[in-house]
Structures
1.
Amino acid sequence: MSSVLSVDNLVIRYRGGLFSPRPKPAVNGASFQLAKGETLGIVGESGSGKTSLLRAILRLLPVESGAIELEGRDWLALKGDALRRARQKIGVVSQNPFLSLSPRLTIAEILAEPMLAAGGPQSPAMREKITGLLSDCGLPADFLDRRARELSGGQAQRVAIARALALEPSLLILDEPTSALDVSVQAQILNLLSDLKESRALSMVFVTHNLKVVAHISDTLLVMRRGDVIEFGRTEDVTRAPAEDYTRELLSFGRKAVAGA
Amino acid sequence: MKKLVHRLGIPGSIALAIVTLFVLVAILAPWIAPYPLQGAGAPNVIAKLQPPSASYWLGTDHLGRDILSRIIYGTRVSLTNGLLIVAFSLLIGLPVGLAAGYFGGWIDEALMRGTDVFLAFPALLLAVLMAAALGPGFLNSIIAVAVTWWPWYARLARAEVLVLRGQPYVEAARLSGVSHPRIIIRHILPATGRPLTVQAALDVGPALLTAAALSFLGLGILPPTADWGQMVDAGRKFFPARWWYSAMPGMTIFIIALAFSVLGDALRDRKGGASRASA
Amino acid sequence: MPLLEIKNLSVSIPTPDGDVHAVRAVSLDIERGEIHGVIGESGCGKTMTGMAALGLVPKGARIQADRFHFDGEDLRENAVRLRGRRIGLISQDPAAALNPVLSIASQMDDVIRAHRDMPRRARRAEAAGLLAATGLPDPERVLRSYPHQLSGGMQQRVVIAQALATGADFLIADEPTTALDVSVGAQVLALLRKLVAERGLTVLMITHDMDVIAEACDRATVLYAGRSIETGPVDDVLQRPGHPYTRALLAALPDAAPHAARLSAIEGSIPAPRSTIAGCAFAPRCPQAMPVCAAEPPPERGNDGRRWLCHLPEGTR
């Protein structure tokens, strides 16, 4: 199986002040691979380094050492316009859809934006493609001319997912995509992601603080704590026999809620 | 109408009415001025320095011209002055601020240090220097004031952009490969619009005031074109005996500057219309 | 007699577009010494119920109830007096509840001074003692700190210590762990349990998180569209839910389904907050709805302390 994303011994360190001692790395030698069509769950609490890792993969943060390969290419070597174009191979969905969707644009304009950026001409065919995307994400075409503030949280997150898929990315990165949503809406979004994974053979990186949410959907699981990767393996193995007490603690929180349902 | 009053408040609505009135006066000057020819500069020596009366409501100047007509014609000059100064300043300051805030790094450093140079001089002194160097005249006085004005817009625009640049929706656009110019035009510029229009509205008053000051110092509009600042200056020689000569245009400057200032405040505080995402 | 007794509470807020029914009919009995969870999704009225008990409803809001009593006193008249004396609030964001420019010592001192007549030195010792009671190591160092020098979990402990300092015996905790990491949140919940056991506190826990209910509460009440639709001991509510909505909510949890299987999401959306509801509020989304559900208010099922509102006869699923 070929890997979509491969990270090798990645170290990220923020600059300290002029006279302060060199800070501990935010990510301390992370290594993992993501196979095509699979989902990797990255779990960690605040300060674990999961956000730094994510931002480094998106090239929003410089890395100190290590390597990242995307579809076999040296991802850290890309610069300028080449980087801008290559980034279109990655779709991103963030936590709060109301912040990540421009308040001034209609849904149609928001979905057209990546396509226009990739050089697609404004055409009836594009409108058709946008409608298709939206319906793949479970929204009818009459949402096209609305604005984000007229939508519910779940609907807005569907739009954000549709936008992330607009350029048919080889990798979809989800940063706490359900943390701002109610439980019943979270279930809808998780179902949508499973469907998309199947129908489009999507590879996904799902970052969250909630181990139980991601354990449901991921094939492999990576647990981070204070910059270190403390657990990495197949989801079944990690959830059945966690190597660390910390992971066990995250899994057991509120366990009673599951039993009877 | 009622909605407008609700959104701007009562003082703001009055200020808006005054500003609108002045704009109308400026446009309709030749038709509403009692003595259009004198307004445009023709002397009328038989009626020199007359106090306010039924035929000359605000009195006459040292060439016998009706002061009301002169003020009405001066409205054209003053408003254009104020608006053009603000427009020129926006034209320079906005792109500088956008570029500095959006790209950051050495571009930001270079642009902002350049801006600081202009801010280091007292504004009026710099304007006087510029006007003296360029020579008097309508366009020159506008350029002279705009040179001291644009750094404020550059700073304001930069501050707004710094906030916007970190917004997830701007980052999302960047990650989906949207080019920098397009991000600036589609996402950054529209959102900086509101604070900058407020600032611009607030500034028309002071801008027109500074232009009037330049005219007062003989560095602005040249006679015979009517200009409030220049009228106040000309009337100074006859003050206080012929007080109306300076006082009438002076009052006018006061009223319009105050109206713009109140209107700007009202625009800043206006109710409703705020987008949800800015919360 | 329950410590907090709410029967048919409604809170409506007049707006130019009609009344918003934030709370429609909530009934809640909270016994002394229990942690009672109130759970529901956004817009269900759980926070407004808590705010009504604190007398913190928006200006112009109308509160109606058959009974709305705390320890025998009518909350409609006495909420403001009881707040900060017997009833304390622990909010979601501890950073916002603390003043960033004052040291913890002076903020603790303000509260203690307002409630107890003590010399300065004794107040300081009292503050240190309360901080120690919330499980903060090295209370003296915490007293010298400013809020930004403390982690979120430590800040939340300081807020709890402040509530204890007022002498409150009833705490309303509104999503107290939502802003915290899971492991830190678990510690804060454990602390609340300990305080309930040791000091006889009573806690109303407002949350959207089933895990928090399971972890910390003795009894729970489920809210939907401003109504309490089910109440009972936590084990019963979570493992033998009576109301179809409670069942659906539990089934929507990702750990309820086998790995990678589809989750059972709830179709449709909650009723608009300005609408009037004739029958059961959940009827339009309920998989087991019958014609009667939309027309008539559902009857009460179950028995003492274990009740739910549903037209379906007991025992049917």
Note: The CA atoms of residues 76 and 264 of chain B lie 21 Å apart.
2.
Amino acid sequence: MIVRRIVALAYKEWREILRDRLFFTLAFVVPAALMLVFGYGLTLDVERIPFAVVDQDKSAMSRDYLHRYIDSRYFDYKGDVASEREIEPLLADSRIRLAIVIPPRFQESLMSGRAVAVQTLIDGTFPFRTASSKGYVVAINAAFNSELLGSYISRRLGVSEETAQAMAQPVGVQLRYLYNQEVKSVWSIAAVLMMFVLMITPPFLTALGVVREKENGSIYNIYASTVTRGEFLIGKLTPYAAISVINFLVLWLMATQLFGAPFKGDPLFFFLASVIYVTCTTGIGLLVSLFVRTQVAAMMLTVIVTIVPSVLYSGLLVPIASMAPGAKFEAHLFPAMYYTDIVLGSFLKGVGLEQLWGKVLALLIYAVVLWTASFLMFHKRPKS
Amino acid sequence: MNGGPAENRVRLYLWWSRLAAMTAKELIQFGRDTLLLIAIAYLFVFDTYMAGNVGMQLNHAVVVVHDADHSAASRELVYRFRPPYFKLGGEVLDNRAGQRLLDSGQALVALDIPPHFERDILQGKPTDVQVQVDASNTVLGFLASSYAAQIIGQYGFDQTLARLGVTERSMQNVPMIRDEHRVWYNPNQNDAWFMPIAELLTVITIMAIMLPAAAAVREKERGTIEQLLVSPLTPIQILLPKVIAMTLVILLGTAVSLFFVLHGMFDVPMKGSLVLFFAVTALYTFTTAGLGLYIATIARNLAQAAMLAILVLMPMIFLSGAWTPPEAMPAGMREAMVLSPLYHFIEMGYGILLKGAGLDVLWDSLLGLALLGMVIFGFGVWRFKRQFG
Amino acid sequence: MGQAALVDNDAPVVRVQALVKRYRKQMAVDGASFSIGRGEIYGLIGPDGAGKSSLMKAIAGVLSFEGGMLHVLGEKIDSEAAAERVKGRLGFMPQGLGLNLYPELSVEENVDFFAQLRDVPPEELARRKHKLLAMTRLGNFRDRPMKHLSGGMKQKLGLVCTLIHEPELIILDEPTTGVDPVSRRDFWMILTQLLRERDVTALVSTAYMDEAARFHRLSLMFDGRVLIEGEPDVILREVPGTLVELVAESQVEALLRLETRFPQAEAVGPKLRVFVPGAVPQVARAQVEAQLEGLMVNEMQAVAPELEDAFIALLQRRQPAGQDDAQKSRLWLDGDPPKGDGDAIAARELSRDFDHFRAVDRVSFEVRQGEIFGLLGANGAGKTTAIKMLTGILPPTGGAGTVAGADMRHASQAIKERIGYVSQAFSLYQDMTVTENLRLFARIYGVPNSRLAERIGRVVALAGLSGVTTQLVSKLPMGIRQRLALAGALVHGPRVLFLDEPTSGVDPIGRRRFWEILVHLARVEQVAILITTHYMNEAEHCDHLALMHAGRVIADDTPAALKAALQQEAGQVLDIAAEPVLPALEALEQAGFADAAMFGKRIHLLARDITAAEARIRTLFAERGIQLLDIALRTPTLEDVFVYRILQQEQQEASA
């Protein structure tokens, strides 16, 4: 291993990247732009669900009940329709996601001490939105019911309204959201996006960089010289890894400064773990580049091995914990999942090596395996 | 030029003949690229299949309990945290231990039942159960807290009703609202009906942008574009066949994915008109390809094209409602979504497949898509013409 | 280190024994054997796909092989580790103009990078860099990005980069392909001088047969095997025979008759060239005369054959060429559009500016139907730009022109429909078969479906492609690919053909086949052909030549007139053989023979007064102890013309 040769290789690569202005710009713009768009655009806080109402009672009580929806920030009132039949086209056209049908004699029944069924029709196309909508409906109903029950108890047992309310709701819930008190999805998403962006850009940069050298023939300079395989791989990839580390720092700043995500962990630990992760993803690109001959093929293969798993199996959108065993197993095969835990742990939980050593170890093993495989697969005297 | 009708007919025939020849060429080249074929087959078949195996639902989330009461009442409450949403992860001796399990991610929810829980309920004294939720993953945090609150609320309600001596049968005589929600289109909220469709439409988008961009950049890199430029082909006749060929390939992939994976393996319903679905897919692919062509005019090599494609693709997908519902978008973004062609496509895709909607309902989305498509495609062609015309 | 001492100095630097290299099922090298001694310039020649590149890569240690033995610099190369041990002592330049260099980096950065890869110490690097850049005249372009260099400069830079660590063995794969004659001469001068100075061994492959004369020894490869090995003269003796040159009326008829008896007959411009194997001059003349009985024959001359003739004869023994030659096809049937006459191409004061740089500067010329027009010039002289304007790809900044009867400013679409074009780089689709490519272009050019099969059949026969119609283009050798490109350009029956370096990198046999077709097209079918080339012996085929330099046409005439003008202006060409040749050249230059230059192993110079010049040379050589082997008068070749004119221009620019 001669450091001077590695430096020469890295320096040459760096200047080549630098002179391809568009590529160089994109290498920095793409991650930042992704962060910006997703940071603002990708939230999971379902709000303003458009809904319509069929109020067949039109009483004071039905309006009181409906106003709990209309006044909620979770719902967006789109108007009244006359009959149930008019709901279907609205749902089909996605103009509304939810419809509430209040039966005739709603007020009368409740006043006379009878239960009333209120129907809600929910658009089920997006299960997560459906679950959220259902949750909101249940919560509003529960609140309304406990008031009804309170006055019922007060009337039936002759206790004061206050006591009755307390009796209607004997068990309160003290909810504490740990790590992300306001359940701001932008916090966790900004953090997780770092995982995403660092999963996608380094392999692309690396795979295309190496394959380009193979495709245009300058790789023969390396084959024909005394540069060792290790020197070449390290020298060639250092600039790409460096770009990714710079990107990582920019993203870190964006997450904390722009999106206000709290960083509670140990910066040094986080930085080092991230460097290992970048080494990992750079290694993925390297391995891809050794399998293919053309840049088109490199591009397609990189899409397959990075974008898809990093969306589906990283915990970005779909929580690992809620996966079926098969999918969970696959998630464990990709490094993204481990880094997601490290990011969330460092940002929101403020835990460090003590709790996360297992994940760091997994990444480390991953990196070692990738680089060793690449090292063994790269030959300076290939078969063709 | 004096254009008699006969001459015009010849000219028109020539135009189509050239287009057909170029389209055949694109398809032949496509068929020879084994690796690309494998990649496309993977994305259309395996990838959509994988997407059917994941979902955004609370599934056996681990709940640890610190039960300071150890009474029948507390046990009954704890017992209600059960599959499919929750799974009991055992009891801890103090809150600290619970906190540690949350920190290390081994548990999602920590339930803390206070002492004298049963006594307080029996005496009608309000008591609080503390629920700590790991909200670092917002989806899980939100769902877990929502379900936990529902369970505990229902538990309290049941306790009250029991104390009042209300039985199952006499429930009708308590003034309360019975929640009768009905979920349409996907009554079981089966994620396998949602995710694969979203993934399929995403894959279509990736293909529609990347394939024409790669094909066009490859001609530029290999110099074959020169031979076409000295021929009587117009820029449109060079570009259009690429888009037509890719559209055909994508339609084929979509059909395979839809019939064998979505319908075959996950029983995704196909309620609406399949003709309409494929027509919309064709229109969408065709127009989105304009973006790919635009990229091809900017990029000098494939590395640049790949980066540009990511730069365009990712926001388009994120702003489409494929991964997050539009209702989860912040105010400005929700309006910006109408600019993503994928948004319209997804609305129509779900509309046709799951809701059985027809043109009478979807005409506005179709119009939006067509308008956007015309602008995008026109822009791509204009750039290409300016560069090579 | 001890091992190195054991290696004796006379041991061969490279020893190849029955080497076998296979790509999957395809055999590339099939038992090749030869050895290269220290200080030799060893040549590898042979048709495309003969296995030269594979063999060179194997020797350079960048390609594994399946069978046989290989020793390089005393090391047995049988593993990656063994190859690594000698890589520090060898340099390798792969095929392709500047492809192994880094386009974004400047000249100096490229050199520095190669030096650092090879652990050249900084002081040493500075010294060598200075010397090599001065020698290659790249010193003034240190900061220019490599992508902005001309082809010849790229090649010289490639050489500098390969030599910067002073290797003992250098391996150069077709280093001069696609390079103009002046740069090619520079390249060889530098190489010869450096090898002499440092006692370096070189293994070089080339597609230019005139360069083969510069090799000490060479191997002719065919089908993965070494067909013949030895010194150029020895090989020449291996193929005895006589070359007969003549002018006959009519040429077409004469050629047809000669071809029936002699496999190597070709039309070169107005002349016919026939190789008569195994015959002494008198016998050869008699045989040719007998064959041409009844035709008017003039200027018959019997001369010694050149290496190229010998190689083609050797290769044809192996690969009887031209089953499909017999059925010479025609591009048009009698019912087809009439053959045009008059001007096919006319350029008037054409100019084209790029940013602040004028690529083509008021260029005018005319090409008539049935004429072959050659556009010559160094890389970057503006030939390709001129062609692009005439074919309607690039709008001109100024000037006018008509092509195939259409005005290039207004009717570029009409021009595109009427012309055929073969570009510099092969630009048909490699992942499609021959027929698929031809069908595509036929349909693009509007050949009606009913005539598709007939037209394709016609060009397939014309270009001699009938054996390969269902093959993928990527599997075809270069020579056949170029004929396919020509067939593609002809499939719609154009009256005007533009060919931009169509034969670059094609082997001699392939080039001859190619020209046979071109000559047929021009002479028989009256197609107007505009062609650019770096092979000066190909330029002899042209009826008319224009020589371009820095965007301008500096000479424009028939080949004969150009040669005559050279003799008028600068005198006769003296062809000198001397030993040792490099000091001889140096002596001549110092004595004021400014145009003295190497041609193969010999020196050419121009002199007005032959007797006086010869006397001066004799005394000069006697003074310096140089042995004069031979001195003779020669008719100038087009290469003499080209080199003289370009150097003249460069001198004028330098003094201006």
Note: The mean pLDDT of chain A is 84.
